[in-house]
Design brief:
6 helices, QueA-like, 2 domains
């Protein structure tokens, strides 16, 4: 399976630069996999396709304001840190720009000295392991000094940090938002529950490895970066009950999907569990638990479009993406959504 098999033409002007005023008024493309047909709706219409007894599985991770702008202690030169993964209580794996300034042992200052960092090690692909020093609680320091780590294809500044969080975000730790969930409002979720659809939560802290380009020509040799996940007992029971009663399990986002498929047994049942996953789902994968998927429109040649192409078919998905371009759908993090059932 070749990387070029997952390429498609995308005009740059279709990359959404800002969220819509109302979350659930984004567009929704509905793909009926068995019937091989497409419908065009608004996201709030997603409720029409959910049935009593179904279970929506949402990723309740919360994005860290993980982008820190500071200066080198010795020279005052500008530096940018992006937090990727916590290594210990005060140490993080980070991406640093410009990397040449972040030599072993070098020190940096943020917010006039309220936060300092020292490079302890140089990791894989040029990442830096740094130790932070601060007073108080690190998350509160980040809230004060950090910026939202918006993807590089978003050029406009985000005026409201909460628009890069889902309305149900709870467990802080992601370097990027689980963007399929950005379309839900509290009111829409209440209406969905009122209809008899259950909701369950997983936590998967999204790392930037999810969005890193695939650099190998043979897709099967690509190596995913590990991300931390958790499924609690009460949520596992909700998911299993839906399956036992004949309901569908519908994952909201590729992160929820990957978490469920990591945990599920051969029969598609899940249990309370936490750990690290590097599961890579591409065409040929046999899904164990999910029956439906809500997702955004993804980058060409990305692991995300490969996952979607495993759940439908590559031909179906590329045809749908071609239609999305033709119909001027909005792409990527702040873009429109797709429901595959």
């Amino acid at each position: 399976m070749k990387l070029e098999d997952f390429d498609f033409y995308l005009p740059e002007e279709l990359i959404a630069q800002h969220p819509l005023e109302k979350r659930d008024q984004s567009r929704l493309m509905v793909i009926h996999r068995k019937e091989n047909c497409i419908e065009h709706k608004e996201f709030k219409d997603v409720i029409e396709y959910l049935k009593p007894g179904d279970c929506l599985v949402l990723n309740n991770t919360r994005v860290l304001p993980a982008r820190l702008i500071g200066e080198k202690k010795e020279t005052g030169g500008k530096i940018e840190f992006l937090l990727l993964k916590r290594v210990s209580e005060k140490s993080w794996e980070t991406l640093v720009k410009p990397g040449k300034k972040a030599t072993l042992g070098s020190e940096f200052i943020f917010g006039g000295g309220g936060l300092t960092a020292k490079v302890l090690d140089i990791g894989e692909e040029g990442s830096r392991i740094v130790e932070f020093k601060y007073e108080g609680i690190f998350e509160e320091v980040l809230d004060r000094l950090g910026q939202m780590p918006l993807p590089p294809y978003i050029k406009e500044k985000l005026s409201d940090k909460e628009r890069y969080q889902t309305v149900y975000s709870k467990e802080t730790g992601s370097a990027a938002a689980p963007t399929a969930g950005l379309h839900f409002t509290k009111e829409l979720l209440a209406s969905i529950e009122k209809k008899g659809v259950k909701t369950a939560f997983v936590t998967l802290h999204v790392g930037l490895g999810t969005f890193r380009p695939v650099k190998v020509e043979n897709v099967e040799t690509h190596k995913m970066h590990s991300e931390w996940y958790e499924l609690k007992q009460e949520d596992a029971e909700i998911i299993n009950e839906a399956k036992k009663s004949g309901g569908r399990v519908i994952a909201v986002g590729t992160t929820s999907c990957r978490t469920l498929e990591t945990i599920a047994d051969k029969e598609g049942y899940v249990k309370e569990k936490s750990g690290w996953t590097d599961i890579f789902i591409y065409p040929g994968y046999n899904f164990k638990v999910i029956d439906g998927l809500v997702t955004n429109f993804h980058l060409p040649q990305s692991t995300l479009i490969m996952l979607v192409s495993a759940f439908a078919s590559r031909e179906q998905v590329l045809k749908a993406y071609g239609k999305a371009v033709e119909e001027r759908y909005r792409f990527f993090s702040f873009g429109d959504a797709m429901l595959l059932i």
